Structure of Transcription factor Pcc1:
Amino acid sequence: MAAAALNERLTLQIPLPSPRLAKIAADVLDVDKDLKPEVSRRLISTQDNILTLDFQTSTLKLLRTVVNSSLEMVQMVVSTMASFDTESEEP
């Protein structure tokens, strides 16, 4: 069976308060690998304080599902960092 073409793409750039928090978010989100890389890929990277999520999927429906799931995870990570990050507090 031939691999499906990954024709649908979306790139999200999410600004975070600092490069350190962007790196933490990327590391946390990158733990879960793609279950079916032949139909869906997610690349996570950072540049300065920007978290970049690049999605490629075989269908628009799958793209919507993957992006929605990833944004829910980003929301959870950002919320957790806001609650527990003590390094950003003033002395």
